[in-house]
């Protein structure tokens, strides 16, 4: 008949007899999980849910919620990608920060005012709370559709429309975690190379598309390195897209610094022309 082997130590026995609290501490640490194992954030990080499939094409959208050109792109262009079979070849990353600025005490000021800061944070929370693309994109699509229709004050109706529980988003926002997410997005946006000049700022495999962003499907197809080209990238449809969209200049929301730089270039050009005249 087997029995558990006991390990005895005269030193430990003497130590524990004089210091019973040490015995209690020893028993707790021997039988309980570590604090590190028990502690975990209530919310996943910004990068949670991102695929590590190296065969996919990375598609990053840097945007702000109340820029009309961002909502137009999400509602009328990006939605078609998410609903197509091509999405299986894409890692889509949404970064709702845009042309916002960070001031003293890590306060964030948004280009289109406090409501944009609210919705940027809400959409950041949605990405974190619901890392599944179909779930958080459905919510963001609903909110941005209301922005597109100039009804963004009704954004909370998206919970009922989609049958989603508002509680985790509310907790993310009120706890301050949403601001932490926005600060992470700010760092990511502000370290872009080349720096973003406006939004929507669409990047395919690290390469910005500038004002040709509406033609993003063709860039995805060109960057795709998988074994078989998706049907959406067939030569006929790709050539059609390229002929229609290449060399076009889609509208954008310039940031304050970019507008100042653009105005300076215009003034410089006018001054130079007058000097030559």
From TrEMBL:
InterPro entries: Interferon-induced_GILT, Thioredoxin-like_sf
Glycoprotein listed as a keyword: yes
Signal peptide residue numbers: 1-37
Keywords, ordered alphabetically: Glycoprotein, Secreted, Signal
Protein family (similarity comment): Belongs to the GILT family.
Entry-linked Gene3D superfamilies: Glutaredoxin
GO terms assigned for molecular function: oxidoreductase activity, acting on a sulfur group of donors, disulfide as acceptor
Annotated protein name in UniProt: Gamma-interferon-inducible lysosomal thiol reductase
Protein origin, superkingdom: Eukaryota
Pfam families linked: GILT
The UniProt record lists the keyword Secreted: yes
Annotated GO CC locations: extracellular region
Organism, scientific name: Rhododendron simsii (Sims's rhododendron)
Localisation: Secreted
Chief location of this protein within or outside the cell: secreted
Coiled-coil residue windows: none
